[in-house]
Design goal:
Elements: H1 2-15, H2 17-38, H3 42-65, H4 70-75, H5 77-83, H6 88-117, H7 125-147
Helix pairs in contact: 1-2, 1-6, 2-3, 2-6, 3-6, 3-7, 6-7
Length: 154
């Protein structure tokens, strides 16, 4: 059942690939504005680089969270998930995993490039990447928890 849900969710993301690319493009544009605004001197960018990347990743994560259960509330898929014999927690976990893989993982893959653009010291990159990976996973899980609340579904 989880594999079927995984295939379905990945197929839906493929159909709406613009929704999946939107957070990545937002983060790229937002992070690109800082060197333009502050100048490219490492003395100005380096102290702000980690914070700028955090803000870019979290704000871009907000763009995709509303799409997490939007199509299911519109077409009745959420009710089908509730009535399914599979555990609801498993179906939601698969949805959260697919959402993280398609929105947060591309951001994490591009984060080293953005970090070098913002002159982040290379010694700080592993810590930044680990914190972004954990925070983005928790952020998506928290968004899913608030999205499964029946008062937020419509």
């Amino acid at each position: 059942m989880a594999r079927a849900q995984l295939r379905r969710d990945l197929a839906l993301v493929w159909v709406r690939r613009g929704d999946a690319l939107q957070p990545l493009l937002f983060a790229l544009m937002t992070a690109s504005l800082f060197p333009l605004a502050l100048g490219a001197e490492p003395g100005k960018l380096a102290p702000l680089a980690a914070g700028v990347l955090w803000v870019c990743v979290l704000l871009s994560g907000l763009l995709g969270l509303d799409a997490l259960f939007r199509s299911d509330t519109e077409d009745g898929g959420l009710e089908q998930m509730l009535l399914s014999p599979a555990p609801l927690a498993l179906l939601v976990a698969v949805r959260v995993l697919v959402h993280w893989l398609t929105t947060a993982l591309p951001l994490l893959l591009v984060a080293p490039l953005l970090a070098s653009m913002l002159q982040l010291p290379t010694a700080l990159l592993p810590v930044l990447m680990a914190s972004l990976a954990l925070a983005s996973a928790q952020f998506v899980a928290a968004g899913a928890a608030s999205g499964t609340n029946p008062t937020n579904c419509g």
